[in-house]
Design a protein that fits this description.
The termini are far apart. The protein is mainly alpha-helical. The protein folds into 2 domains: 129 residues, no CATH class; 104 residues, no CATH class. The chain is elongated, with a radius of gyration of 20 Å. Helix content is 57%, strand content 7%. Helix 8 packs antiparallel against helix 9 and helix 8 packs across helix 10.
């Protein structure tokens, strides 16, 4: 049985008519404890994010108690779960449920960071790129793509003036190359620097002391208001900025 045939069987054997996936079956196949995945900080964060962003949609995780305990997960959570097994399987699942990935760019960015294959990264980059293709401004497309991929990982050190990614100083001189490689993002060098600076300050602002909040508040007020806004075709710009 080829790898693709194996992956197809894994998905079809676990897939319901409504696209929910039998997470219990997948975990048994890979010898992975489902409870460990549920308890991971990233899983809890994704679950809470989805509940907050989509409060009236179908459930994300469904427990079924009978002769055997079975856990069913929404396709978005299934893609998230698959990324813990093996990269090629996660890529395959993402291709099947690509519409869900495209609708949730933060999921695409999160999974892309876990992938070890070029194919997997390309799938996720394509999903994120398509998510914002309706925006006319190349700069704003770049802003939202970088925000989805790096947003909460960027911080501004008010003591040194450094922009940090995952707690380490970010080399701004090689920034454009890094973004081209990781996100296939074609934005001018100075614009990329400006975007990461904005995101770093916005993320750090709530943690700043009063003096620094006053120092940065007025200059970045536009972006602070935009922090959690997700553009759509109907509302590409926050109403207050129209």
């Amino acid at each position: 049985m080829s790898q693709i045939e194996r992956f197809d069987k894994l998905v079809q054997d676990a897939r319901r008519n409504d696209d929910y996936i039998n997470a219990t079956r997948w975990c048994e196949h890979y010898g992975y404890r489902l409870g460990n995945w549920k308890q991971k900080t990233e899983t809890k964060a994704k679950f809470e994010q989805l509940k907050t962003a989509n409060p009236n949609t179908e459930p994300w995780i469904v427990e079924r108690v009978g002769k055997t305990w079975v856990t069913w997960v929404h396709p978005i959570m299934a893609i998230h779960l698959a990324s813990y097994f093996e990269p090629n399987f996660a890529n395959y699942v993402a291709e099947i449920f690509i519409s869900y990935v495209t609708a949730d760019p933060t999921l695409a960015a999160d999974i892309a960071s876990r992938q070890e294959t070029t194919e997997g990264r390309d799938i996720m980059k394509k999903a994120v790129q398509e998510r914002y293709e309706f925006l006319n401004s190349k700069l704003m497309r770049g802003y939202y793509i970088i925000r989805d991929a790096w947003g909460d990982k960027l911080h501004y050190n008010t003591f040194t003036g450094e922009i940090q990614l995952n707690g380490s100083p970010l080399d701004l001189e090689s920034l454009k190359f890094k973004l081209d490689l990781e996100l296939d993002l074609k934005v001018e060098r100075e614009d990329t620097k400006r975007i990461v600076e904005i995101l770093a300050v916005v993320n750090t602002y709530p943690l700043m002391d009063a003096a620094n909040q006053q120092r940065f508040g007025e200059k970045y007020s536009h972006w602070l208001k935009r922090k959690n806004f997700v553009p759509t075709k109907e509302y590409p710009t926050p109403p207050k900025f129209l």
